[in-house]
Write a structure and sequence with these properties.
The chain is an alpha+beta fold. The protein folds into two domains: 130 residues, Thiol Ester Dehydrase, Chain A; 32 residues. The chain contains four helices and five strands. Helix 1 crosses helix 2. The protein is elongated, with a radius of gyration of 22 Å.
């Protein structure tokens, strides 16, 4: 039995980018909206380059971005050549997360995350990702510590949820 290939950077695409005059503001800083436009260009390249993703769209799925975050690591100058890279870093039943890097000369100047889902064109409800997409995306590495349960005290100086509710109930009972 053949197992599906798991990629740390599934469906990865790259495009060359150059900072143009309309990409910078009066102080020479690349505008946030420029990075959003570059992310859109990368997503369109990804859909065009990888049939399983295009099949998702052809099957009636409309990709919708729900959240975008960009982390700026180094300044970028007018005329500077960049390389944009984008890949699917997580794929759940209906939700996906894309990771992106913008680099110049081997230095990562910005990183981005986008999350979203595909919606049915008619019902506007989330639709399941195609099985071949979910199978190809590597299981995410857990980078955050496991969640604290409601009964645990959590970090020093913080009370657990049940303890806070008990204190609150006591204050209400005492008329405070």
């Amino acid at each position: 039995m053949e197992t599906a290939r798991k990629d740390a950077r599934a469906f990865e695409v790259h495009i060359p980018l150059t900072v143009k005059t309309y990409d910078v503001d009066f102080s020479g800083v690349v505008s946030h909206i420029t990075y959003l436009r570059w992310l859109e260009d990368l997503r369109l390249q990804m859909l065009a380059s990888h049939p399983p993703l295009q099949w998702q769209v052809d099957g009636g799925g409309v990709p919708v971005v729900a959240r975008t975050s960009v982390h700026y690591r180094a300044p970028v100058s007018l005329g500077q050549a960049l390389r944009g890279s984008l890949w699917v870093s997580r794929a759940g039943f209906s939700r996906w997360t894309l990771s992106a890097e913008f680099s110049s000369g081997g230095l990562v100047v910005a990183e981005a995350l986008q999350s979203g889902c595909f919606l049915d064109r008619d019902t506007r409800r989330p639709v399941a990702l195609r099985q071949e997409i979910r199978e190809r995306v590597a299981a995410p590495r857990r980078t955050a510590p496991p969640p604290v349960s409601c009964d645990e005290a959590g970090p020093p100086g913080r009370r657990g949820w049940r303890e806070l509710m008990a204190v609150r109930a006591g204050a209400v009972a005492a008329g405070r």
